[in-house]
Design goal:
The chain is mostly helical and 432 residues long. The chain is built from 19 helices and two strands. Strands 1-2 form a two-stranded antiparallel ribbon. Helix 4 packs parallel to helix 6 and helix 6 crosses helix 17. InterPro entries: MFS (IPR011701), MFS_DHA3_Transporter (IPR053160), MFS_trans_sf (IPR036259).
Length: 432
């Protein structure tokens, strides 16, 4: 009955669309990649995961430590997996990332002891690392092979939206699958999620690899790929500025996902709106990610990027000063949704300046910096939230605002300046 209900929801969304993606679009390899990402994001277990852990004997401290351990594992593995992606192929790396995420969910079903959960979260960190830089690089290389690099914000926006649509759908499926707070229901949610991730892995295998300089990457050697990536970021003025903004102006949506629940408690928000607003925030985020390309075309890349960074700042400031039973969910949904606009724009900006042969490695270096920064910022925001939630929101607004003010972009820095392998190795002249 439950499986039939789930299938009914999936099958009845639209006669001409599959899970929100037009059937005709699936002929495009990037359309299939987006569908695979949708399946990967079907985390039906999300609403009950903490209850599942505590039911298996974990304390709340141990539960929170799993997330911290996963973050640390991801940071440590980002660059090595980026090198692997450049050397063995972007497709293979992404496929491994999808597969290991399904394995992680399977390990959660089997785990009974704390150390077993820790081992599972090490696998999750590896899964995320294999996918992160390689997915973005794969999208750009596919567009580059078509001569459509200018569509990166559109393609990455569709990819990002597919992930957020998966989270939105997960909330609906969780209501159908988890009808009682019992271990069998929790395990069923995990098993269905793992099956969806394996289906996503199969779909990834149908997408052709478009790595244009894989042989050159293998010839350069692993350490050389990393050195070239770091040297490029340090010596290339435009890329250095973009990376600084990517890291320091990050609005940290995962911090907001941890803080919105105490914010709702403070505002007296009805319990029914907790889950509904989470789904609405993910849905609005998907629309925001898809709108990034249109915003870039209407306003220009520079104005669109500045606006995409200032909207979350305005949202945090509003949340710091306002709270009401129904106003709080509205502000959360709008703030979280607005955050998603900047990520496709950032992906488009930074890939214009990175050479193909070490694209995944360089992106992974940036991801490592972002992960380390986010880990520190979440700790500070959590400390401030214990004192006063308004301080945390004000802090999360102030830092990106200062970053955008201190590292302003110029129009000429947004133009494509992709370097050859030789230039990337030696580093361009610093004329900033």
């Amino acid at each position: 009955m439950r499986l039939g209900s789930v299938a009914g929801v999936i099958g009845s969304l639209s006669p001409n669309r599959l899970l929100g993606i037009p059937l005709a679009a699936l002929r495009d390899p990037l359309g299939r990649f987006n569908l695979a990402t949708f399946f990967l994001s079907l985390t039906i277990y999300s609403p009950i995961l903490v209850l599942y852990y505590t039911g298996r004997g974990l304390s709340l401290f141990q539960v929170l430590s799993l997330e911290a351990f996963m973050g640390l594992a991801t940071i440590l593995l980002e660059v090595p997996t980026g090198v692997v992606a450049d050397r063995i192929g972007l497709k293979r790396s992404v496929t491994l990332g999808f597969f290991f995420q399904a394995v992680w969910v399977g390990l959660l079903v089997l785990a009974r002891e704390y150390w077993q959960f820790l081992a599972g979260y090490a696998v999750l960190g590896m899964a995320i690392s294999f996918r992160s830089g390689a997915s973005e690089a794969w999208i750009y290389e596919t567009l580059k092979a078509r001569g459509e690099e200018h569509r990166m914000s559109q393609a990455h926006g569709a990819f990002w939206a597919a992930s957020l649509a998966g989270r939105t759908t997960s909330a609906v499926l969780a209501a159908l699958v988890v009808r009682e707070m019992s271990e069998p229901s929790f395990v069923l949610a995990l098993e269905l999620s793992a099956a969806a991730m394996l289906l996503g892995t199969v779909l990834v295998l149908t997408v052709p690899n478009r790595q244009t300089e894989a042989e050159l990457a293998r010839q350069r050697g692993s350490l050389r790929l990393v050195r070239d990536g770091i040297r490029l970021i340090r010596a290339h003025p435009a890329l250095r500025r973009i990376v600084a903004l990517s890291v320091l102006a990050d609005p940290l949506p995962y911090a907001l996902l941890f803080l919105f629940q105490p914010y709702y408690q403070l505002a007296g928000t009805p319990a029914a709106l907790y889950g509904l607003s989470s789904a609405a925030a993910a849905a609005l985020g998907a629309l925001g990610a898809r709108s990034a390309f249109g915003l870039e075309r209407r306003l220009g890349a520079l104005r669109a990027f500045v606006l995409a960074n200032l909207l979350p700042v305005a949202g945090y400031l509003a949340m710091a000063g306002l709270a009401g039973p129904y106003l709080a969910p509205l502000l959360f949904v709008m703030t979280y949704g607005a955050m998603q606009i900047r990520y496709p724009l950032i992906a488009a900006l930074q890939n214009r300046h990175i050479a193909s042969y070490n694209r995944a490695t360089t992106i992974s270096v940036v991801s490592m910096l972002e992960g380390a920064y986010a880990l520190a910022m979440k700790l500070v925001a959590g400390y401030l939230a214990d004192i006063d939630l308004r301080l945390a929101f004000g802090f999360l607004a102030l830092v990106p605002l200062v970053a955008v003010s201190c590292f302003p972009l110029r129009v000429e820095q947004l133009e494509s300046q992709e370097l050859s392998a030789a230039e990337g190795s030696d580093g361009p002249r610093n004329d900033d």
